[in-house]
Amino acid sequence: MMNPNHSDGGDGAALRRAALGGLCGACAAARLVRSSRGSLFLLCAQPELPKYPGQPVLRCAYFAPREARAGGGTRRNNAAPDDGLP
Predict the structure, then answer these.
(1) This prediction's pTM
(2) Whole-angstrom distance, CA of residue 19 vs CA of residue 40
């Protein structure tokens, strides 16, 4: 059963607004989560990263464009996991 507070990412406009101009608005790993009070949060599905990254995220080694996602994010730009980038 799908959680009604989690979006499947189909609402691209709301996702971009919640990302405050950052990368998460176009990332395949981002999902919108609506709290019981109506607030929107961005959930990151990449297990290596914080679940709810501070916005806007301007650099991310795991960024994958929404249309290109096929079964999991991939590391980009040869960035190491300990490079301090979200």
Answers:
(1) 0.61
(2) 10
The secondary element (H helix, E strand) that includes residue 6 is: none
Q: Look at the block and give the residue holding tokens 């395949």.
A: 28
- pLDDT tens series, the chain, 86 aa: 344 455 444 567 888 888 888 899 899 999 999 899 988 889 999 999 999 999 999 999 999 998 754 554 444 543 444 444 44
Torsion of CA 43, 49, 50, 52, to 10 degrees: -20
List Cβ neighbours of 83 (8 Å cut-off, separation of 6 or more).
Answer: 61
**Whether residue 56 has a cis bond before it, omega within 30° of 0:** yes
The DSSP element (H or E) to which 18 belongs, if any, is: helix 12-18
Token readout for 28 is 């395949």
